[in-house]
Write a structure and sequence with these properties.
This protein is 32% helix and 21% strand. By secondary structure, the protein is α/β, with parallel strands linked by helices. The protein has a seven-stranded mixed β-sheet with strand order 5-6-7-8-9-10-11. A five-stranded mixed β-sheet has the order 12-13-14-15-16, with helices on one face. A two-stranded antiparallel ribbon has the order 1-4. It is globular and about 60 Å long.
Length: 339
């Protein structure tokens, strides 16, 4: 699978009259492991980008380094860190770890990053207390007795091991924004949540025009609105686009350009219009989700998430207790089972 251009090899361009050293544009393949998207800046990719298969990032300058997110379990995180250390000496002692949000596939491996300052938004740090790896491990142990929902859980999360994970929470939090430095590199953390979760953060390198979006961007798969509102997610897409990035590293899926962010914004705008039409006729959220023709988005993976997204929109429209309100996992399992 080939995707939008990324950056490799030295070249310069001008931003606001300032010469910036970056890289020539070339196509990359979506494959597991490290991909250098600009000089000293890597994405760590995990195809196929579906449930739990998240991306991470490494930002370096000299012997300094910042890690963007860890992975869903200890084995995967250890493998990632070993790969990073083989790739660059700067990864041997990571100074800073930024967690983009509270979903476990972006922080459960934190304990393996010894000595790093762990940074997250205050809202994300609070939400992490509610989403512990021990709780997730117990949920998965219960899955065989949970019928259709349990079967769905085993299908999407059965490849991961949540046992024995020590919790390593952020020891530095912020609201709105925080500016950091990795050597001489400028790194800006920008809080854009609540959207996907309560405290979503994007990691922006303004000089290199690279942005790590966390799960504000799912590239090639349907997003899922755990927190919302959807209007905030649309605003987050606008905020990313206003930063004028060249390279966008999504939370899931292949490295992209800004067009992928515009596509996701269009998805939410389309879904908002279509859900509103059905809400106004009195159709239930679940029925509306099945009735909507996804059109240009029909090829995106994880389409069971649509039922959760439409339910979130119904709440935005004023439905306090939709007739088919329920646990999102139950709703998605029923959707998947109804194919």
């Amino acid at each position: 699978m080939t995707f939008v251009p990324a950056l490799k090899d030295n070249v310069s361009f001008h931003v606001g009259g300032v010469q910036v050293q970056t890289a020539t544009v070339r196509a990359m393949k979506y494959q597991k492991g490290m991909e250098e998207v600009a000089n000293g800046i890597w994405a760590y990719l995990q195809p196929d980008g579906g449930w739990g298969w998240s991306n991470a990032g490494l930002i370096t300058d000299g012997d300094r380094s910042l890690l963007v997110d860890t992975l869903f379990d200890l084995k995967l995180t250890a493998e990632m860190l070993a790969t990073m250390r083989r790739t660059t000496p700067a990864a041997k002692n990571i100074d800073t770890l930024v967690n983009t949000h509270a979903n476990g596939d972006h922080w459960y491996g934190n304990s393996l990053v010894d000595g790093a300052e762990i940074v997250a938004s205050a809202s994300a740090a609070a939400e992490m207390l509610e989403l512990s790896p021990a709780g997730f491990a117990q949920l998965m142990k219960s899955a065989p007795d949970m019928g259709e929902t349990g079967a769905f859980l085993m299908r999407i999360f059965g490849s991961f091991d949540f046992d024995g994970i020590d919790v390593a929470l952020p020891n530095r939090t912020f609201t709105d924004g925080l500016d950091l430095a990795v050597g001489d590199r400028r790194v800006s953390l920008i809080e854009v949540g609540p959207a996907h979760t309560a405290g979503d953060v994007v990691v922006h390198l303004p000089d290199e025009r690279v942005i790590f979006t966390g799960d504000i961007l799912f590239h090639g798969g349907h997003p899922i609105v755990w927190a919302g509102p959807v209007s905030n997610w649309i605003a987050a897409c606008d905020r990313i686009l206003a930063l004028d990035p060249v390279i966008v590293v999504p939370g899931h899926g292949p490295v992209a350009g800004p067009a992928a962010v515009a596509d996701l914004k269009g998805y939410f705008e389309y879904l908002t219009v279509e859900a509103r039409r059905r809400f106004d006729t009195g159709m239930s959220a679940a029925d509306a989700a099945r009735d909507i023709d996804l059109g240009p988005y029909s090829g995106w993976s994880e389409d069971e998430r649509v039922v959760v997204n439409v339910g979130c929109l119904y709440r935005e429209f004023g439905a306090e207790t939709p007739s088919d309100a329920g646990n999102p996992l139950d709703l998605m399992a029923a959707w998947a089972g109804g194919r």
